[in-house]
Amino acid sequence: MRRVYPLWMRAVSLLLLLQTATSMVMLPNSTSWQKTLDKYLDEDGDWWEAKQRGKRAITDSDAQLILDLHNKLRGQVYPPASNMEYMVWDTELERTAEEWAETCLWEHGPAGLLPQIGQNLGAHWGWYRPPTFHVQAWYDEVKDYSFPYPQECNPYCPLRCSGPVCTHYTQLVWATSSRIGCAINLCYNMNVWGQIWAKAVYLVCNYSPKGNWWGHAPYKHGTPCSACPPSYGGGCKDNLCYKGTVCVCKTDTEENNFIEPEAPRTPQKPRPEPPNLPAPVPTNIERTFCLLVSAQLVTCDTKLRDQCKGTPCNRYECPAGCLDATGKVVGTVYYEMQSSICRAGLHAGVIDNDGGWMDVTRQGRKEFFIKSNKNGVPSLGKYQSANSFTVSRVTVKAITCETTVAQLCPYEKPAKHCPRLYCPRSCSEENPHISRVIGTRIYSDKSSICRAAVHAGVIRNDVGGYIDVITAIYLYYTKHRLNVKTFTV
User: Taking the alpha carbons of 222, 228, 229, 230 in that order, is the dihedral positive or negative?
Assistant: First the structure.
C-alpha cells in the first residue's frame, strides 16, 4: 500500500535535504592555511618577484620531517629489505627540485635531468596539510603493489600494480636511492589535470641515484642489512644500511693529504727566528685529525676541491653512470683540483662506468695540465700553475682478527693508502692479550684492526665487514717530544 505524506512533511524533507547538501561545501580553514602562506610567501607577499638571495625553498623543519619519514617508511617495508640504504639530504637535489617547483608545471621535469634522477610530485590546496602528507600518500600506494620475489624474475621482474599508479611508492623505497632533496612552492592558478587551483602548494622531491628501473625489484628481500653494499662497513640502523663517521677535528698535516688554500704567488718576507722558549711542561697536547670510517660517497660531478675543504682527501665511492655526467676533467695522470673526482677516475681507468672505490692522493702544484681523451672521457688542458691530485685503484684484502696496522700497512713518508680490509665475524671473542685494542677512536698501530673496528662501532661483531684505515702520526708532548704511530678506522 502506497503511503501518502502530508504536504507539510514533504516540505520539511526538502528543507533537510537542502541543508545536508549545503553543509558538504566546506571553506578552507583560514588559520591553518595561513601557516603555509607564512612559511613560503616572501616577506613582501609577492611570489612573482625574485626570491631574496639565500632564501631556501623549504624550511629546515620541513626538510627534516620529510627525510625522517622517508627513512622510517623505508625501514618498515614488507617483505623486509636486505639492502635498503639510509637516506640523507642532498642540497644539490634540493636546488634542482626548487628550480622545477618554481615552474608550477604539474608534470615531471626538466626533461634533461630526468634520466639521472628519480622524482615524486605532490600538490594540494584548501585545508592545511604538513609536507609529510604527500610522502605518506606516496607510500600508501603499497596497498596496490605486489612485490616480485626472486623466483618471479626470469630474468626481468614483473611490475604488478592493481591501482592507478605504484611508482611513487617504488621510488620512495628504491634501495639504492640514498639521497633526497625537496622543495615547496606556492603556485597561483596552477593547472592540475585540467583543473585550475587558485593557490596550490607544490611539493617536488628529487632522488639519487635514480630508481624505478624497468625489470628490477625496488629492493632485495631478506634479513635487514644482510646485503648492504660494502661501503657501509656492516653498519645498520633501524633496518637500514647505515654509514657512520668517526671524526676527530682536523689539522693541515701533509701526512693526511688535506687540501689547503693555493700557495701565495708573491714573495714572502722571511720570518724572524722565534725566541728561545722553555721546554714544554708534561701535558698531553694532541694534534688530532679528521678521519672517516669508510669511503666517502660522492656524486659524478663532485669536484675534489669542493669535497676536501676541511676533510681528508683519501678514498671515495663513485656511483654508476658517471660516463654520461657533465663534470669537467682537467689534466692527464695529474688532475687539477677543479676536476670531477669520479670522472677523473674514469679517465684514468681506475674505475669503470659501474662506479666503485678509488683512492686520491694530493700531489702539490703542477705547472701545466695535459689535454687528452681516454676511456670515453675528454679532459681539458691548462697552462697555469695549480694544485693537483692523482687517482689509483683500491685493493681489497681479507685479514684475520689478529692483524695489526704495523704488520699490514706501516706508516711511511710519503704516506701510502692502505688496502680496503675485510674483517671476519666474532673477533670480539679473540684472546685480548693477543688481539689487543689500544686507544679509543684513535688507535695504536699495534692494535688488532678488526677488534678496534668493533670497538669503534664501525662493524658489527656478529657480521664483520669491510673497513678503511687511515694511518697518521699522533703527536703529543711530555718532557720530550714523542711520535706515536696510530690509525683510525
Answer: negative
Tell me the C-alpha to C-alpha distance, in Å, between residue 364 and each of 256, 257, 258, 313, 476: 13, 10, 11, 13, 27
Helices (H), 340-425: 341-348, 405-408
Read off the C-alpha cell for 233.
662497513
Return the half-sphere exposure (C-beta side, CA atoms, 13 A cut-off) of residue 330.
Answer: 20
> What architecture does CATH give domain 295-393?
Beta Complex (2.170)
Summarised one tens digit per residue, pLDDT across range 304-354 is: 877 665 445 678 888 888 999 999 999 999 999 999 999 999 999 999 988
Q: What is the tens place of the pLDDT at every residue in 232-266?
A: 888 899 999 998 643 333 333 333 333 333 344 44
Q: What percentage of the chain has pLDDT greater than the value 70?
A: 71
Q: What is the DSSP string of 451-483?
A: HHHHHHTSSBTTTBEEE--EEEEEEEESSSEEE
* 417 phi and psi angles, rounded to 5 deg: -85, 130
In angstroms, the CA 405 to CA 318 distance is: 26
Per DSSP, 394 falls in state P
Cα–Cα distance, 20 to 430 (Å, whole number): 76
Cis peptide before 410 (omega within 30 of 0): no
Which CATH number among 2.30.30.100, 3.30.70.940, 3.40.33.10, 3.60.15.10 corresponds to the domain 60-237? 3.40.33.10
Taking a C-beta distance cutoff of 8 angstroms, is the pair 253, 291 a contact? Answer: no
Residues 369, 372, 373, 374, CA torsion sign: negative
* 424, amino acid identity: P
List the beta strands (DSSP E) in 294-349.
296-297, 315-318, 331-332, 334-336
Residue 411 CA to residue 405 CA, distance in Å, equals 8
* Pairing status of strand 331-332 against strand 240-241: unpaired
d(C-alpha 133, C-alpha 362), whole Å: 47
